[in-house]
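Figure-free illustration: sequence to structure, shown twice.
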Amino acid sequence: MVGIKNNKQAQHTKKVLQENVLQLLQKKSLSSITVTEVCQRAHVNRTTFYRYFEDVYMCVDKIESDFLESLDMPKDISPAKALQKLLEGFYANPQISNLVFIEGETKLLDKMHHAMEQGSKHVEPMNGYQETYIMLGMQGIMKRWVKEGMPETPEELTKIIIRVAFADDLQSLRSSFF
């Protein structure tokens, strides 16, 4: 049906716009990407862009939401399995993983944290400092992994993050710290 936002042509156009935003994010910051630039690359006019998105930030928000939905996290998943599933999603969609680097401009890290929390309701909650420490450490490790071209498999990186988060490799250094 013509004019319906969910028809195949509309779906294709939204996908093309999103792909072009992701391509631009490989080279530029989100705040420097313009609607005009996206439209020129996608070969559509600005009116078409605004039919689907209010601005580039809304387009990125939709990309993030679609990505997290595609992971299909079960409600009773363990934090380790949720992390591995997330890393598998990045591994399969390397362009999306670049969104992890856009701190303060996207909500992907917050959405990832929320998605992982949903699956770990049966886990004893940490205090705020511990949670902040672990989440920022995980984010740093994921960023490094992406920047280095994802040399480890998602399963290997999950094990590394768990080992680091619980300081398994740092206990021997503890005495030299004090």
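We now fold a second protein in the same way, so the two outputs can be compared directly.
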Amino acid sequence: MTAVPQAASPPRPSTRPPQQPEPDHALTFAGQAASVGAMRDWIARCLRRGAFDHSAGLLDDLLVCASELATNAVRHSGSGLPGGTFTARLWQDSRRVRVEVADLGPRPGRPTRPRIDASLMGDGAAENGRGLGFVAALCEGGCGTTAPPDPRGHTVWFELATETASRG
């Protein structure tokens, strides 16, 4: 199992509204490529056990977006270094599902922050830099990052509206 126990530490700031309740679910994973699949499985289990009957299409989009955030945490942040971790948080209600992935911040000597580079979206040959653009497209812009980045790491989030919200 690639999940590690959640350490008691102060919450990392994000761009979620201050009134945002505690997440319905949170779990910390080892900063390894295998943890991306483990996180995806964990999210799917949490949603299936929840009180809301989300469609297969919503679940597919949500897992694609969550995978991108976790992959970025492992590939581009200190979370992917030996001993690194990332934390996934999940909220759900009848109108939306929200996922956050908190990483350990930039790797030494490679200061970066998550960003959407729209200039790469049309470049079919680009191998990097398009993932957050796809996330933004799937969630119709309902995504963001900590700004400025917390010195302890970045938090990247997205929200997808449920079918109930789309109809209502």
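Summary for the second example: The chain has four helices and six strands.
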